Fold these 2 entries.
Entry 1:
Amino acid sequence: MGLGADMVAPIEVRNLRRTYGDVVAVDGISFEVAEGEIFGLVGPNGAGKTTTIECIEGLRRPTAGQVRLLAMDPSTERRVVAERIGVQLQESALPSRLHVEEALALFGSFYRRSINVDDLLELLALTEKRKTAFAKLSGGQKQRLFIALALVNGPELVFFDELTTGLDPQARRSMWDLVRQIRDRGCTVVITTHYMEEAERLCDRVMIVDRGRIVALDTPEALIDSLNVDKRIVFGLPEGQDVASLTSLSAVSRVEQNDERVLVYGHGDRFTGAVVNALEDTGVPFTDLRTEQPNLEDVFLSLTGREMRE
Amino acid sequence: MTRRDGPGNLTVVDRGSSVTVRGLASLVVANLRLYVREPIGTFFTLAFPVMFVLIFGAIYGNEPQDMFDGYGSMDISMPAYTALILGSVGLLGVAINTSSYREAGILRRFRMTPLRPLVYIAADVTANLIMTLTGMVGVLVVGWLLYRVRFEGQAVSVFLAVILSGTAMFAVGYLIAGLAPNARAAQVIGMVVLYPMLFLSGAAIPLEVMPDSVRTISDYLPLTYVVRLLRGLWFGEPWGSLLLETGVLVGVLVICTAIAVRLFRWE
């Protein structure tokens, strides 16, 4: 991770194990989260994500193994840790008649340091809703309020649990922008999600968890590359035109042409560029060119032999 | 204590060490606001007892009666209705509020902050006591305006007794919240315990008009001791002659708190 000797990773987990009776929720996992990264915990429901996060937050004691959060033991120093982290919870609520600005002021008062309410309202685009009661907010507005609450103490580290569940695609994208903004302010971000697309687009590194174990941990690009599956370029071509010459390119492994549709398979970083350049050079009138890539969904399928499903 | 921070230009307020007191104060204020915005809670605490004064005042008036040692029906109803408020706030308000906050995940949200659980409960108790005292003042004002009700005790003693009785009744409420699997169950348990007790303890109707069998039952109800303690102090009896009542309420407070603490769940 390139951490200097004087820098401690915000999160260090060593051989974490947590059982509930006979059920093993987390089965000996180790990882570190580096300062300033967006780290994603991905896996199907019941994979052990929530238990892992709760052990890190100090809400649960590990059955075995160690957790260090900001160089402290979160289960014995919960209140000190709570001052410095922010948490957005998947299943939580506020009193239904509490107004947005009141909630921010109230929760801010629990911390030694807190962010000015007006600034938070502006950051989360809630200024117009400041006097609205919690129960009257839309799903997306509630989610933004919970993010504001997670940021109210100006944390060094925030946890977002299933941040975009239940949001429409547009709201989800603006939420991703917001998470990037938060990270750009110098905050380390840990998210859990079961949307593979979210992990792929948003996270610097992704840890895929299944049945209480880590099945993969790397950047989304590296995880996808490790699959060694061909990318695919698709485009339309008028009848009578021929693009068989593309097979001479080293990045291209094969070309399929049927009726007016062409599929070109290949790999490597130069693949797309090489194919498009070759098409331009030969001057064939291709249309609607798009690339199709393997994604994290495929990674999960290949590593676990199962589909990721909600 | 205010400064600008880092890349985002967010203003940060740094409060140093006064955070517990500040957290407590802002939580009390928030609770009071929510109380006032909640029509049902406000009704039971503020309007319901005043309604009792108007209805039972209209029925019985406030003529001095031998049965009440020369006091009128409304005179002795002032401490009794205070007990009625304490009982309904504790057994219904605290029980339902705590369990529904838990069910909705509101307690879970509080748990993620540095707020101490004890501070959370202290704020809840304080807000409920303030509402109870407000309800009591409402009853007194209406009672005085309509019937010139008498008060012969020491205000400080009555105030202390309200706090003791209140914390004891609220502890029963937390206990119910701990026992109940959900908010609906807490409401049912609260009502089943509260409503018979209101009528069998002398809080709603003086025990003097009740048959002996009812009085026997009343000896086993905690709210009876709230009524007796408040009524005794209200008319100038010394604490020394109310040791049984005080002892029972301290006992209820200690035992219910001990069990409620064990049963308390954030989620």
Entry 2:
Amino acid sequence: MTNTDSNPTPEIRKSLYRQMTRIRLFEETTHELYKSGRLTGMSPHLCIGEEASAAGVISALNPDDYILSTHRGHGHCLAKGAEMGKMYAELFGKETGYCHGRGGSMHIADVSKGNLGANGIVGAGLPIAVGAALSIRKRGTKQVVVCFFGDAATNQGSFHESMNMSKAFHLPIVWACENNLYGLSTPIEKVSATATLADRAKGYAMPGFSIDGMDVEAVHTVAVDAVARARAGEGPTLLEIRTYRYFGHGASDHRPYRTREEEQEWWKRDPVAGYRMKLIAEGVASEAELAAVDQEIAK
Amino acid sequence: MAEKTFREAITEAMAEEMRRDEHVILIGEDVGTLGGAMGASKGLLGEFGEGRVIDTPISEAAIIGSGLGLALTGQRPVAELMFVDFSGVCMDQILNQVAKVRYMLGGQPKVPLVIRASCGAGKGYAAQHSQSLEAWFTHVPGLKVVMPATPRDAKGLLKSAIRDDNPVMFLEHKLLYNSKGDVPDSDPEFLIPLGKAEIKREGTDITIASHSRQVLNCLDAAAELAKQGIEAEVIDMRTLRPMDFDVVQASVEKTNRFVYVEEGYPQCGIAAEVVARVAEHCFEYLDLPPIRISAKDTPIPFARVLEQETIPSVRRIVDTVLAARKWAVPAA
């Protein structure tokens, strides 16, 4: 569902909940499948905890807008309209998967829905996003590109090249940085010139916003504005979506680099559970209604 | 048919394809107003405008990535790297993105991208601007690698490369830009297929295969050798990946002797690949071990006399072939 209004309607809000729940369930199931040995290969990179980013940003897009995704890309893929069955087929390496089993988790894509692909190289999607935006400009359409990348990608040379070129050429791009505080085991603040990644936007004379990424409506509201700006020909925006991945980088990561206390603090801000409570409390949806949504997705 | 330079042939190929298909776009450093650092895109900005001839910042990763993004969204871009040596800056985009996206995504998108780059030594541009790195790209599944030696081949191959729905590395030796040759210019459908080698000189005594500028040295060497009674068959590989080995095999079965001449570094180069195939498929036909002639194993020096010593010369090719006679298996 596309929203062009910064104040989400009850329908939008329920669909945000639905999308986040869909992502959460998919990821939890994927986790179980990998743990039990039924999924093999490199461990999937789960986005549990980061659902509000994918759901909040992508709900601001039209079906023909493009996204570039990361190695942690199941949430983006689902939010852009992918079918769970075909995604699982890809994770299982089946011919019937989105990539006919050639790509797997890290390279999942659904080009027909504008998802130009997850990427196994940190920061590699940004230059490709520049190209997709140049294509839009050349064709004169009103499409927009959202490029997702992590906090650690902002330290790659490709980030600099792409940010600069997008502003210099006034390209219709929303740069969506999902800052989950760690590049695998390395705290981002230890290896970055500025701890607030949105500040990097200043170096490129573009608007930059740092958002509570555990609040799906906050993400959605800012994303709607940034997408509108791009669509109106006003150029790129940098979004820093402050979020947290509850699980490790991958399955074998036992997270010695952060405390369980820290994790517990972030669990208290679970974007899915928190939004559920909020919707019920505000009378947007009843407990029964949301339970029905959960059941439907679980099938 | 008209006599054109290699450079003009490339410009013509791009112009014809850009006229034929409005999706063809050129992107790179200085390709617009300047007409290309090598002059290969002269006139294109004037004819096709800023929307289709794009001058970029010095951002090689973004240039190649842009090429990929354009290709994934319905365009047919030609991305230019000023020097192939700069591929170090954007190697992830070439190796892990451009070469692999169509495969990893199960064929969902086409990737009709041509990456053009100048390459080669002999102009005193020194180590970082004189390399021949085609072995790197020829190594990688998912890329096609084309290196013309003549203006005619340059035009026909570049047009085919632009029409190909897969990524093509199109490498232009800088010493070839001013070289002249006859080029068909009245038929916009003049195409040379990728993946086909060509016998540039027929012979019976020894097969000398090569690509790019060294083909010209091989032809000059063949003329020298003919004075000594040795008739060399010179093969221009033209496309390195996919490689047309059949032409080489047929030739070696005829001549029983094989030399590969290239300008790349000696270890793990194109010559190594072709010689390996010759050893595998033509073993019983060989009267002497296959020979590789390449640049010396050193960064390309600046000083002219050193540079000339480093890259294969007509002299070195002739002397190597003459010396090889000593190892020849006498006829039964």
